[in-house]
Amino acid sequence: MQWIAYALVSVALWGGWAFFGKLSLRHASWAQVSFVYGVITVLLFGALLLGPARRSFAGANGWALAASGLCGALGLATFYLALDRGKASAVVPLISVYPLITTVLAVAFLNETLTTLQMVGIACALGGVVLISAGS
Predict the structure, then answer these.
(1) Segments making up each domain of the chain, as ranges
(2) CA atoms of 96 and 69, how far apart (whole Å)
(3) Poorest-confidence range of 43-52, 84-93, 110-119?
């Protein structure tokens, strides 16, 4: 159950990330905000990789590492573009359906399964995003 604590902290941090990102876009371009995010990420994780999170890359799936980095970087750029041009109250809920893609890929390629209750939860989450976005 330790993963739940991490997930809840992620929700809080990503909520702040989106809010402060929108605030930053008042005086900076999407490219500048993305760049600062990238620099801070490199510094933080660079320090972590020198310490307790150090691990060998031997046996790492190189294409998956590269695809993850590329998807994350491009997703960040398009997120800030959307946030720059739209209302945070509409953009962030719409962006938040990305776990649906992860779930579909995990079921298709990682042999993960979903219970009926989980499928109902996904449908409710999608319905919630539609309702929130419809008012924008």
Answers:
(1) 2-87, 97-136
(2) 19
(3) 43-52
Task: Identify residue 31 by its one-letter amino acid code.
Answer: A
Each residue of 88-112: pLDDT tens digit?
988 888 888 888 899 989 999 999 9
What is the Cα 38 distance to its own chain's centre? 14
| CA angle in degrees (0–180, nearest 5) for 97-88-129 | 30
52 secondary structure, DSSP code = T
Q: How far apart are CA 83 and CA 64, in angstroms?
A: 28
DSSP secondary structure letters along 14-80: HHHHHHHHHHHTTTS-HHHHHHHHHHHHHHHHHHHHHTTT----TT--HHHHHHHHHHHHHHHHHHH
